[in-house]
């Protein structure tokens, strides 16, 4: 049991600390693609939004062609002054619903969300199988007096050393491709 906890702790430290190598500087999402294991793993975000509502739902999805033990997904949804709030991040009915550690740290001041996922903390839970699908749902509310405009959700660097990263079962890191072409939240004109 202690051995398993020690391995999980090392894995968690590896995920959090090794990200610093790929970060250029704070607030600059300079993500370098790095996947030596077959097809390019890809993470993407899509936004669903009704035209008359001040709410939006963003879905984070992932394609992976190797088993994954952990991942960090740091996201930015504004510049600190953008008229939007992240209300919650939900993992229910996603590919990672069974993971033992699912965290989402929402920073309303900096308008960031740090999603951290670890499949196994007990030695009994399998890694995420190869596949494609949703891993998180994020819910947003816009200020009612927001002027016409929008913001595109993007990956970012979050201190101390978090960048977009996947970790395989044998603790090899992967920097996936990132696609946010469908990740824009639009603001409505105040009425």
What would you say this structure looks like, in words?
The chain has 191 residues and is mainly beta. The protein has a single domain, classed as Immunoglobulin-like (Sandwich). Helix content is 8%, strand content 42%. The protein has one helix and 13 strands, in the order αβββββββββββββ. It has one helix at residues 2-17, and strands at 42-48, 55-64, 68-76, 84-90, 101-107, 112-118, 131-142, 149-152, 154-155, 165-168, 173-174, 177-182, 184-187. Strands 3, 5, 6, 9, 10 and 11 form a six-stranded antiparallel sheet that branches. A five-stranded mixed sheet has the order 4-7-2-1-12, with no helix packed on it. The longest helix has 16 residues, at 2-17. It is elongated. The relative contact order is 0.29.
CATH C-level label:
Mainly Beta
SSE pattern: HEEEEEEEEEEEEE
Number of domains: 1
CA radius of gyration: 17 Å
CATH structural architecture: Sandwich
Largest sheet: 6 strands, antiparallel
Topology:
Elements: H1 2-17, E1 42-48, E2 55-64, E3 68-76, E4 84-90, E5 101-107, E6 112-118, E7 131-142, E8 149-152, E9 154-155, E10 165-168, E11 173-174, E12 177-182, E13 184-187
What tags apply to this protein structure?
191 residues, mainly beta, Immunoglobulin-like, elongated
Structure at a glance:
The protein has 191 residues and is mainly β. It contains 1 helix and 13 strands, in the order αβββββββββββββ. The longest helix is centred in the first third of the chain and has 16 residues.
